[in-house]
Specification:
7% of the residues lie in helices and 45% in strands. The protein is mainly beta. The chain has one domain. The longest helix is centred in the last third of the chain and has 6 residues.
């Protein structure tokens, strides 16, 4: 893992397969403050075996300490929303 200079924000991670070969690399960038917390808003996951492919995710809004009912993540509720 590679972290920001202050060691609080991940910037890059490398994931290896069972044979210890590099399988994918993840990059985080566009660090901003949300609700008093600094975090990267953009993530890119690049597989090593599929050149030209990548998965990107960008947070547009984040809410911390949100009220979430206990059953939100129950198995039956998750299966119902597939």
């Amino acid at each position: 893992m590679v972290f920001s200079e202050d060691g609080t924000i991940p910037l890059q991670g490398r994931y290896f397969d069972r044979k210890d070969r590099l399988a994918r690399t993840i990059h985080w960038d566009d660090v901003r403050e949300f609700d008093g917390r600094r975090l990267p808003l953009h993530m890119t996951l690049v597989p090593e075996d599929d050149k030209g492919y990548r998965t990107e995710m960008r947070y547009q809004a984040i809410r911390f300490n949100a009220d979430v009912t206990e059953d939100t993540f129950s198995l039956s509720n998750l299966e119902r929303h597939r």
